[in-house]
Design brief:
about 35% helix, about 25% strand, 11 helices, alpha+beta, about 325 residues
Length: about 325
């Protein structure tokens, strides 16, 4: 069975690499003997989708193209599946091995192990063991969101996606059509950067606010993916990390230690309250809401109004 599957995958890869135009499922089925022997259309479709996913997991870049008649075809361009010679020094190989170690406790453990085997072939020194039990570094990135894996695959394969997203100020989620670019973990939360087709603009989405399933779509991207996707800088700006002014808030004594750590000044007011001056940037209202009744905004007025609006949205929802 293992030999038969390997032969089937090899034949599919050769077909996709050898064609100059996208091949439909029908054409691929007629070209590969194992697909011709499939008992039914459903059996063939399941087999083909598994094989296609397996080849992508092995690193083959398979493009999905839709023609003018709406028929979907597949091909693997040679220029997209050709790599230059890879040479790694000991420090580079160790860094990549350490990165692979991050995923050993996640569902990506198999992919990480496969990547390490490729690194070994590319020059990872044998004395570098990123899985050593007593290593000095034990990296860990939490991945709890169900949306992470389908979005990671969509970023890798350059596939548009659709998902329902609930903004912090919204009562109900909205459907978003997105061309995903990159994922990044920032302060314990995962974020997706991509092109929002409905708004015709770059957007960053927090994965924990995605509701339901992420659905992949066929077709090409409508905009070019930037060479450098600055997820962290964009999130930092939206989260108020990039501040250009100050805000004055009242904070209950013994509460809000993250706010106190950022405070420019703190003054005791008595009766269980302190007054803090904190940096004010875009997104500060969303952060203040998390502290509930322990925070009261004094000024500026627009920040106070934004916090009140968010609290009202939470009360309605």
């Amino acid at each position: 069975m293992a030999i038969a599957k390997a032969e089937r995958l090899m034949n599919l890869a050769l077909c996709l690499l050898g064609t100059r135009r996208p091949l439909s499922k029908r054409e691929l089925r007629e070209s590969i003997e194992a697909y011709l022997e499939a008992g039914s259309d459903d059996s063939f479709n399941r087999m083909f989708e598994r094989d296609k996913d397996d080849l992508r997991e092995l690193g083959l870049v398979i493009e999905t193209v839709e023609n003018l008649d709406g028929e979907v075809g597949y091909l693997a361009r040679r220029d997209s599946n050709r790599l230059p010679p890879i040479t790694l020094d000991a420090e580079e190989a160790a860094a990549l091995g350490l990165a692979a170690k991050v995923w050993q406790q996640a569902r990506l453990a198999g992919a990480a192990s496969g990547a390490l085997q490729k690194l070994r072939a590319a020059g990872l020194p044998e004395d570098v063991d990123p899985y050593e039990a007593h290593g000095a570094l034990e990296p860990h990135i939490p991945v709890h969101e169900a949306a992470f894996e389908p979005l990671m695959l969509a970023c890798r394969d350059r596939r548009p996606v659709v998902f329902d997203y609930r903004k912090a100020t919204a009562v109900r989620p909205e459907t978003r059509h997105v061309e995903p670019w990159a994922l990044e973990c920032w302060r314990g939360h995962w974020y997706l950067a991509g092109w929002d087709r409905d708004r015709a603009a770059e957007r960053v989405f927090r994965l924990s606010r995605i509701t339901g399933k992420v659905r992949a779509r066929t077709g090409k991207y409508t905009v070019e993916v930037p060479d450098v996707v600055t997820v962290r800088e964009t999130v930092a700006g939206w989260a108020g990390e990039i501040a250009d002014r100050s805000a004055l808030i009242r904070l209950r004594s013994g509460a809000g230690y993250p706010l106190r750590a950022k405070a420019v000044s703190v003054r005791e007011l008595g009766e269980g309250w302190d007054e803090l001056e904190i940096p004010y940037g875009h997104g500060l209202d969303a952060w203040l809401v998390e502290f509930g009744p322990d925070v009261v905004v004094v000024e500026p007025a627009e920040l106070r109004a934004e916090v009140v609006d968010r609290l009202r949205a939470v009360a309605k929802g």
